[in-house]
Every structure is written in structure tokens, then in C-alpha cells.
Amino acid sequence: MEPSAVLSIRGLSKRYGGRRGVQANDGIDLDVLPGQVVGLLGHNGAGKTTLVNQVVGLVRPDAGAITLDGIDAVAHPDIARQRTSIQAQANVPITGLTPRTAIQLVGRIRGGRRRDVVARTQALVDALDIASWADTPSQKISGGMARLTAFCMTVVVPGRLVVLDEPTNDVDPVRRRLLWDAIRHLADDGAGVLLVTHNVREAERVVDHLVILDSGRVLAADTPAGLAASTRGTLTVELDLGARIGPDTAIGWPAAVTPTTRDRLRATGTVAAESAADVVRWAQGQVQIGAVERYGLAAASLEDVYIRLVGPDHAPVAAEAETELQVVA
Ligand SMILES: Nc1ncnc2c1ncn2[C@@H]1O[C@H](COP(=O)(O)OP(=O)(O)O)[C@@H](O)[C@H]1O
Ligand SMILES: [Mg+2]
Known about the structure:
Elements: E1 7-16, E2 22-32, E3 37-41, H1 48-55, E4 63-68, E5 71-72, H2 77-82, E6 84-87, H3 99-109, H4 114-127, H5 143-155, E7 161-165, H6 173-188, E8 192-197, H7 200-206, E9 209-214, E10 217-222, H8 224-229, E11 234-240, E12 257-262, E13 266-272, H9 276-288, E14 294-299, H10 302-310
Parallel strand pairs: 3-8, 3-9, 6-7, 7-8
Antiparallel strand pairs: 1-2, 1-4, 4-5, 9-10, 11-13, 11-14, 12-13
């Protein structure tokens, strides 16, 4: 066990539904240090929520150890829960309250002094740019606002460990960026943050450490830079296909390219840097004959690492993430 860790997990295993059931967690090791944001990344069904639910005592592990702030969280789930703030994947209903009253209420329940809670609520509301909705009855707020309210309720009086299960779901791109900043600040203020997400591109900006989960197992665990190092010398090629090419039409990639993702309007692949010039020539030809609208090359990203580890079937939907590609045509 990492001695200074706020959360330390060893050999965590959980199976649902007996022998023919699902091995949702399969021998997972994971540490979160104070001041650290650890991203838990994986496709739907990888076992992320199962892990989180065991940390907060909602699900009992079959095997393994969970130590939270020095306490055996499996033996003492109640104490563990007190030291953890969790934003669950599903929002807690706040019917009859406004976002502000709901956030303040949780802050008071968690033992915050009134003045501190009021000030902290205002600071969060401002940081996430939700002031114009903060005093609206909850029945009238959008899914994104409800999600941001749930985040504020979680962190108004943060525990030593903050667990966030897909906090950016339903949140618009501008406020999503503010939310990532707020998550970073939480850790900078000393909390350990376990961040569950499937958005690789966005997580890359704030996490100190990444744990990639697939079918209940840790496939890789490293810093973003450490994971990305495996892509050094590799470039991503991206094609904007335009509307003319059907979704089922195969892309005639040159042999040097390893295809990674394909959707209706976009195809991506990776290529070794030394073959990049050939691929540019090929792509220019494709633009000239009208098969491709635009193309771009960029340094391979963490998303490429992720896809390589988990396989293209589980490629994240990147439509919402702004692309950092440099378009050269
Ligand atoms: N309560 C449950 N009963 C039976 N199977 C479950 C239950 N919760 C999750 N599972 C299964 O366990 C696997 C992991 O689920 P989950 O932890 O929710 O994954 P994630 O959060 O990464 O999407 C999935 O195959 C899911 O169908
Ligand atoms: Mg989940």
C-alpha cells in the first residue's frame, strides 16, 4: 500500500450473478494521493461504477482491500463514507429546491458553518457560470444544470476523497471546461480526486494519473505523459469525408496507415512519422478527386493510446470534444 494514499485499492474483485454472471472487477489495484486527480477510464460496462460503489460501501467486494484515509473501508463502510464525497452517475433529485438551496443544504448537513457554506456555494456557482440558474426551481433546470448542481453538492464541503462518476455528462462544452478547471482546483486544494470518465481527450488536461479499465481489469496505469510516450514518433491522420462518401464506403488508406476510428464524416488512423510525407501526398490526391474534404496530421494523442489498448470497437465518441488537429489542407 502507498503509505500516504487517501485511497488505496488492492486486488479488488466483484462478480455479479454467480458463476455465469459478470466479473465486473477483476483484481484491481489503484491509489489516489492527496492533491492528485486520478482518472478512471473505460468504456461502458468496464466496471467503473462497480469500483466506485465498493469504495463508498454500496457494493460489497468479493475479495480485495480498500483503505480510505487509513481506514479499512470494507470493514467500516460508514466511516469510509463520511470521509468521501461522491457524485453518483445518476443525479440525486432535488425537487422543490433551487440549485443554491440544495447545495447549501448539503453543505450544512456535512457540517459546514453557515457563512462558509454560503460563500463556498457562491464561489462554485460563479466558477461554473450557473448564477443565472442558481435560484430557479429545480423542475425548470436543464439536465446539464442538474449535473453541475450535483457536482456543487458533492464538493461544497469536500471529503478527503472526492469521487466523481461521469461528472461532465449532459454538460455543455463551455461549462464542461469550467468544470474540469473546478476539478483541478479541488485537488490543488488538497483533496484526492477519483474521476470516472469515458472522455479521454478532456480528461487528459486535468488528470495526474490514468487507470484504464477494460472488462474489470486494469489494462494500463500511468501518467498521461507516460502513456503518450508510447506514441512518440507516431502521428494521427484525420480525414473530413464530407457528405459525398457513404458511411459504408471503405477508405482506401495507404498501407502505412493503421485505421483507428470511422464515423459518418470522419476517419482517423495512425502513421509512423517517417511515412507522413507519403500519406500527405496520398491525402492531397484524395482532396483533388473530391473523396476527402480536408485532412490533417497531428501528434498522436492519448485517445490513440486508449483505442490501441481497448480496441476500436470501444473508441470513445469524440464528436463533442474540440479537436486539436492542425488542418493542413
Ligand atoms: N447490479 C448489477 N447486477 C448485475 N450486473 C451488474 C450490476 N451492475 C453492473 N453490472 C454489470 O457489471 C459490469 C460492469 O458495470 P459497471 O460497473 O456499471 O460499468 P461502467 O460503470 O464502467 O459502465 C457490466 O457488465 C454491467 O452490466
Ligand atoms: Mg458507470
